[in-house]
Amino acid sequence: NAEKAMTTLARWRAAKETETGKQERRPYLASECRDLAQCEKWRVEIIREISKKVAQIQNAGLGEFRIRDLNDEINKLLREKRHWENQISDLGGPHYRRYGPRMFDADGREVPGNRGYKYFGAAKDLPGVRELFEQEPPPPPKKTRAELMKDIDADYYGYRDDDDGILLPLEEKAEKVAIQKAVEEWKQNRAKGSEASSKKDEEDEPDIYGSDAYITRDAEKEVRDDPMGLLGPRFTAHVPVPSQKDIEAALLKKRKQELMKKYGIDEDEPM
């Protein structure tokens, strides 16, 4: 009732001011006002109206339709405030959009992809609005191969990692530590398992001198590798082997016998 009485009183006062001609109306377009002081005045008035409506919309008992109307009015006043701030900046005043405080940003919540429209107070819990805030924002578009290649340079491949002179000393130090550690481990393993490893090697090492199997396998391998018999005979000759001169003499004698037989000459017959 008190709120209704205040609303009625405000309407009566506005009507009386209209009758007496004392009420000054805010210009419809901010660009029509060329006075910097007047622009500052209208901006402050808009901020007061926004603050009043933001306080009203916190009441969830106003009903869905009233809450939606209040939320629309707040967004409309926010756009109007931005227009007046741009006009103030054009007239040489302060840049509220750039350096001014972000008023009402904490009260309002913007749905991703909704072009700056914000929800205040109980409007954030309206049917259909709550689901919008629960949805995950759409994933960013994937970059094309050409866009990815723009960021690839010599630093990407590590070509200039050694230019600052920091990496090489660190690598040398780490290398020395790793080598020293490996040597110590090798010495420890050698001291612990030298006897066991030597015994095992003696047991596993075959006796190639006392086994005929290795001799037989080696001989067979040589025969396979020498199919033409260039390595010499594999047996001992028990008869005299003729020399080259003996073979030539035998061939000459055989040829002589063939000629004498051909012409009917007896071997015992004197020539």
TrEMBL record:
UniProt KW keywords: Nucleus
Primary residence: nucleus
Family annotation (InterPro entries): Helix_hairpin_bin_sf, Isy1, Isy1_sf
Residue ranges, annotated region (Disordered): 1-21, 186-229
Matching SUPFAM superfamilies: ISY1 domain-like
Compositional bias ranges of the Basic and acidic residues kind: 215-227
Lineage, broadest ranks: Eukaryota, Metazoa, Ecdysozoa, Arthropoda, Hexapoda
Record organism: Anopheles marajoara
A Pfam family hit: Isy1
Full protein name: Putative pre-mrna-splicing factor isy1
GO cellular component, one term: nucleus
UniProt keyword annotation of Protein transport present: no
Family recorded in the similarity comment: Belongs to the ISY1 family.
Keyword hit for Transcription regulation: no
Compartment(s): Nucleus
Gene Ontology BP terms: generation of catalytic spliceosome for second transesterification step
Gene3D superfamilies hit by this protein: Helix hairpin bin
PANTHER family: PRE-MRNA-SPLICING FACTOR ISY1 (PTHR13021)
